[in-house]
């Protein structure tokens, strides 16, 4: 059954799990995962165990998160918080502050232990809700 | 003000616009944009005009959509709908049917006309809600 939840003025994103990370403050987090982010765990809910069963260590995946500490009212920022850079519309930046603060993170899976997935280089804060995991697409001929 | 909307059991995704496309049925749509998808328009709401003001024609962006016709109950599928391929957990596939059906599309901007953005190779159906636009990240040194 297609579930078209147009209740109120949007769609309800339901977290499928949470990030466990040593990063607890926004000012500790690197701007992107490949700029020195630590390893972290993706801790998934038992309800989605069947959806994660074919993930494997050693592969890269895209993790989508909900950046729950972001400010959704912000439409333009100094990129990377650098006051010397001109104010830029957020759709041309990776600012966490944006109308729908969905985080997009490419990470390497290093281990899987039941519902826990160990990943390399994730800049999301401890407790960040996870909303989806997707494979990185290879060339069209190999899909 | 950080808006931590933990009302009910999730977060409210508010569309920032809609896709205008000649694709109206799921069986018409290619599996991925680079497999023969048509050009389409991203028609943004006036409320986010300041967020889009620095997008430019000729660049690639990531468009996030809400695949509103997807089935959120599905946890495993035959990849690409091919019954000869073993059933696979959706987090290891790009199936639109998944717990949070956020679509991720890399497209080339070919023109911008006010709140309308013309893009190449978008496989989303006509009317699909748009939730975010992000730049493609280049090498860390160029950010």
From TrEMBL, chains A, B:
Family under the similarity heading: Belongs to the tRNA methyltransferase O family.
Record Gene3D superfamilies: YaeB-like
Protein name per the record: tRNA (N6-threonylcarbamoyladenosine(37)-N6)-methyltransferase TrmO
Lineage: Bacteria, Bacillati, Actinomycetota, Actinomycetes, Micromonosporales
UniProt key word S-adenosyl-L-methionine: yes
Region annotated Disordered, chain positions: 1-37
Coiled coil: none
Alphabetical keyword list: S-adenosyl-L-methionine
PROSITE patterns: TSAA_1, TSAA_2
InterPro entries for the chain: TrmO-like_N, UPF0066_cons_site, YaeB-like, YaeB-like_sf, YaeB_N_sf
Positions of the TsaA-like domain: 13-143
Domain of life: Bacteria
Pfam families, per database record: TrmO_N
Compositionally biased spans, kind Basic and acidic residues: 23-34
Record bears the keyword Ribonucleoprotein: no
